[in-house]
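Structure tokens please, single chain.
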Amino acid sequence: MDAKAEAADLKAHPLPPEPGTIATPVFSVDFTTAADDMVLSSIYEIDQQTKNLQDEILRLQQQKMILMDRAIRDNIRQDRYSELREIPGKKFRTIDAERIQKDWPDLSKQAAEIEYRRLKEKISKDGPTLKTLETVFGKQRVDQYCTVKQGPSTVEVIPRGRF
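Here you go.
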């Protein structure tokens, strides 16, 4: 049997789950077909199911962390069906400012002046930050010059009679 035929056969006749595996629950309820008198109750039910699934995700993530710690601690790099692959961490650079200033004092001074000009242009364009103004003037004085904007309201469905 070639690979395509085997894949088609597996799709038509999937292998039984391994002992000890957890079947993925299938939620087949289509809440979008709810009658008008059950729309809000359906939204509430979706919220409850979402919360339950989030709790289950958290529980599974904790179990995963315990097993990952165990695999690393006990140097388990592969088992019957899986293997541990290390993904190198991201590289990032940090500058040793003191050393570069010591080795290249003139260029360091030039870079600092460029940075100062950029910040000065930004401040002259945007003005000082709210935090800086509050530090200089005090929060109460700055509040007199602030416009408070409120974002859009949101709605939440709650069950009736249960507060």
